[in-house]
Amino acid sequence: xxxxxxxxxxxxxxxxxxxTARDEYKGELGVFLDANESPYENGYNRYPDPHQRRLKExxxxxxxxxxxxxxxxxxxxxxxDMVFRVFCEPRVDNVVAIAPSYGMYKVAAAINDxxxxxxxxxxxxxxxxxxxxxxxxxxxxxxxxxSPNNPTGNLLRREDVMRLVKECRAMVVVDEAYIDxxxxxxxxxxxxxxxxxxxxxxxxxxxxxxxxxxxxxxxxSRVIELFSQV
Length: 230
Description:
The chain is of the alpha/beta class and 230 residues long. It has eight helices and seven strands; from the N terminus they run αααβαβαβαβαβββα. 28% of the residues lie in helices and 17% in strands. It has a seven-stranded mixed sheet, with helices on both faces. α4 (76-87) packs across α5.
């Protein structure tokens, strides 16, 4: 089992996460005076649960994973950005991504000032595992894959993806935004045994909820904890 904390940026590892009085209070809530909210109920006067407990419980049932393995972001793009913010030291670390693929990986890398190394897919748009491994070095913190791939539409071979997960110390991020349209099984079942695997999914495509911007990262509970702290 890989030690995820060895990949985390030192500043994030030392971070004391923001906490509210409502988070820390364990008793039964009655009168709310801690957050300067309006007391007049209109459906929107209270801050939402920052831990999204009820939503996570529902998604956990749908996805067949534990709630502790779910991060909910403002679309999958927030989860992508979170990989850089948690694991990648600007101007020091790098990530590897396949090409052509979803453009947000490159945008997030640029925003976070992290080098991105692109590896072209093969003639049949297949994952070239050896070529990816050749780009990985001691400062590689993440490998971004997309399956089914956007824009080519093909699935990456499960055994190829899992070889990278097993052989690389870096986080392997598999974007499964379109997995609900595929016959293949999601890689989310591999999370329990592979701490460096992050599976991204969304409620925007097959679930027709694009306007809600509900993106998911499914991963080891320690990864979810780090994302939530940031």
